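cron nightly-structures :: item 1 of 1
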Amino acid sequence: MKNWIKSFFKAVFAIGLLAFCLILSDRNVYSDSSLRKEKSEVEEYYYAEDYIGYMYPVLPETADWPYGNHQDMVNVSQIPKSVYEAMTTDELLQSVLDYPLISDILAYDDFDIGYQVVKEHFGALEELSKREDNGDCLKNLQQIYIEAEMYPQNHEPEGSEYLEKRKNRAFVRRMVLGILSRQEDFSEDKSSIYTENDNIFILNDVKKSANMIWDNIRAVRDYFIAIYNTFSVGSTTITTPRGGSMPALIRVVTEQWHCTDGTVGYFTFSDFTDEAKAGYNSAVYSNYGLNPDPNYGPSVRYNCHSYAWYNQVNCNYWVNQFNTYGYTQVSWQNVNAGGIAVYYNTYSGGMGPTSQYTHSAIVVANAYGYLPQESNVLRSKWGECAVYTHTMSNCPYYYIFYPPMSQPQPCDIEYYN
């Protein structure tokens, strides 16, 4: 009897802790009425000007969007195969750029892996990757976006909610265009449409005078569009609190300005500009209903692995290979608060220890098996995006596999205490 009572109170405590953590998390997605708009209202700002792509029947921020489970979001966002196969490549490209979960690519430490994961689970992107004229269509759409930036047709006053949403969605499209253009699927030599021109001017150390330089460039050139890239400027070795050593990178961000005369300019910053941060935050909020941790917004300086395994307070290093020294691998039912969850890749059937890990997260609360694994509450940094508190299933890394002749199973996740 005593064991039964002990188990009962343990279950009540665990479930209560999970509920408390969800309430205290950045956004309770299940009760936020601001994320439950009419579909027609969302369509006003969701699609690009002169959109010719697929009209998705379910959109984020509407009543039918399945907040809380990433696999359900993927399922409701699929384009029927017969539809995307009949599309022109221009129509297909625009459909891909406005795929509700296309911004998941940005949540991966490596955009190339993010691209592969999204392609694996979105048939329209797989189809686009096979089209022989996809590279030409990318370049044509880039020119259209430049002209749209030059001659904006804003129907809302500056500072309005709709205008800000349009700007943020345009930011995501530009980022994804740049990522697509670097993939071998779209270019034989893998050279980006944003960097292939030899007429390049370099502007460094411009953080304190960026506005002045921006105005000077505009005075002599037609216009340009900003794309963000990141790169490493140094490396070091760091030590985890439990004594494991990890190689780490020191990273910065470049803002690329692309003029209509073919000139490309690079500004180097120590971290993202406000425009980039707003774009990242808006994409995550729209799809997952999560606001970032107010102290840990989008950043190129550190990633999920350094946040989870090294330092959650003041981290300035990017880690691609973590060290489990001092940790013990456990089942999901037995991982403690403060433990670490590791997601593995989900493309090309990647499962188990032979596949590549893609994400690390800190366990905030666990129901110890009294509730499904998907209810576990985690906190993690999403690639270059911000730090978020979320359930196991409410993040870009959660997928369900449907193996032949077998029961569906969630993506492979390992836990450590």
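cron nightly-structures :: done
The mean pLDDT is 79.
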